[in-house]
Amino acid sequence: MRRLFISSLCFCFLQVSLGQQQFSLTPEQEQLRQEQRKLPVSQFASPNWPGQLIPTDSSMIKKIDDVLPVRGLAIGGPSRNGVDLFCKFIEEDLAPAHFNLLIIRVDWNYAFESYPQLRDPNPLTKEDVKKIVAVCKKHNIQIAPQINLLGHQSWAGTTYALLREFPQFDEVPHIKTENYSDYTNVSGRPQPYSDALYCKSYCPLHPDVHDVVFAVVDELMDAFEAHWFHAGMDEVFHLGDERCPRCAGIAKFVLFSDEVNRIQDHLAKSNRRLMIWGDRLIDGSRLATGLGSWEASLNNTSAAIGMINKDVFICDWHYDYSGLTAVQFAFNGLDVASSPWNNTAIAEQHLNDMLDWRTRNLQRAVTDHFQGIVHTVWSGVDGFLRTYYNPATYNVQSAATKEEQVAQNRRGGDARTLKFLISKFMELNQ
């Protein structure tokens, strides 16, 4: 009862916080918004749509499907040399543990035919992808290929393929990638409106950007025979820049929600569905959650939570604590999965909270939105699997100092956490 009260209190507090922000659109902005929302809204009311994670064949339904509908892993795509080991990992580790969702960060690691200039060196071929598709089909594991959209178009001093080949799409062309190291000040707070840089974004209002983006998205979805697409959209700090000739003056929550809806509407035309990370939809201010600007928003994109299409699936990542933000998503009518990373104790809290919320005496329309767990791995998959299959490389040792012990605890934490979740998922199906 105490946890339910805290959950409800947190939700109400978040809603009040959002309500205190007085947002208004100019007539020109409202007209632009309406023009951007002309595409049809998707329909996923039927449990028989192709991307359903729970099988419609009753003979295939497992006990865990009712307890925890989504058991996912978000991980990078393998190198060409690592495809066979990746398939072995799916076959021998994920499938027996009842995983049913695999989010694969592909980005530009695919031999695109629509825009070959966007390929990474030595990318995955269609034949490589079909090997992964085959083993996932065999075990009823849905694949959600991922291309980071909107944000994360660069990293450190490197500009990624989209803005490298189409620099006109850059939201902040006046900011150079060599300023990456100056992005945070001494307090670790982002400075999104200075000339410092975290990750570049594309301009969501550039008239040509979606012709390119949707072409590669559709090509990748066809190759993976997928019904889910993950667009990332986390940590978007460069949005609505005051020097952008198209975005300047438009509220950031409008820009963000419209881009989410634009992607979902495009996917819906092919009976597909969008997943995103949830951080930009959380108010990180001290009076709301206090989460700050990394795993939540301090530039008012959080108000978009009530404006995005309800078919969008949220992966709610928190790595150092298990919070109540999933409650906010569920009460806003959005399907949500909690996403831990490299801390086993925190992952256990995420799992217990999700199981708890699904059995609460709330309206079914709310509890059904608590979907499950999507574990995250952020190292390269080839290196991760070498660690995963060699526990000696990540066994925790005693250290002389607190700092060294923290480093020990984190070393291989993603592999330890995944093995923990594997054991828990197997227990839940007994």
In brief, what are we looking at here?
With 430 residues, the protein is α/β, with parallel strands linked by helices. It is 36% helix and 12% strand. It starts with a helix and ends with a helix.
CATH class: Alpha Beta
Task: Identify low-pLDDT runs.
Answer: 1-23, 36-48
Helices, by number, come to 14
* Helix content range: 25-40%
What does this structure look like?
- The chain is of the alpha/beta class and 430 residues long.
- The chain has a single domain, classed as TIM Barrel (Alpha-Beta Barrel).
- The chain contains 14 helices and ten strands.
- The chain has helices at residues 2-20, 27-36, 63-67, 83-94, 126-138, 161-165, 209-224, 252-268, 325-331, 344-358, 364-367, 381-388, 402-410, 413-428; strands spanning 70-76, 101-105, 142-149, 154-155, 158-159, 228-232, 273-277, 313-317, 336-339, 370-376.
- An eight-stranded parallel barrel has the order 1-2-3-6-7-8-9-10, surrounded by six helices. Strands 4-5 form a two-stranded antiparallel ribbon.
- 44% of the residues are buried.
